[in-house]
Amino acid sequence: MDGDSTDQQALREKLTALRAQHDALNHEVDALTENGVVDQLKLARLKKEKLKLKDEIARVEDQITPDIIA
């Protein structure tokens, strides 16, 4: 396996982990809001963390499939 393939595999693994974290936070946010008792500060922190993960996911996806100028 060459270095480029190894890098791509590492990026894919990182992407999978980031998506799993994002999904877990999404479930936690949903559970908090469904219970009716909402800690607004905790909810805001979770949503901020979700946004950071979403940005990181986008960055990793861009590294895996960079824009090609034709």
Verbal overview:
By secondary structure, the protein is mainly alpha-helical. The protein has one domain. The chain is built from 2 helices and no strands. The chain has helices spanning 3-34, 40-64. The chain is elongated and about 50 Å long. The two termini are 29 Å apart. The relative contact order is 0.14. The mean pLDDT is 89.
Task: Please give the structural blueprint.
Layout: H1 3-34, H2 40-64
The separation of the N and C termini measures 29 Å
Number of helices: 2
**Helix content estimate:** over 70%
Number of strands: 0
Count of domains: 1
Mean pLDDT equals 89
Instruction: Report strand %.
Output: under 5%
Specify Rg, calculated over alpha carbons: 16 Å
The oligomeric state is single chain
Q: What order do the helices and strands follow?
A: HH
Broad shape: elongated
Q: Which short descriptors sum up this protein?
A:
mainly alpha, 0% strand, single chain, 70 residues
Task: Offer a quick outline of the entry.
The chain is an all-alpha fold and 70 residues long. The chain has one domain (3-64). It is built from two helices and no strands.
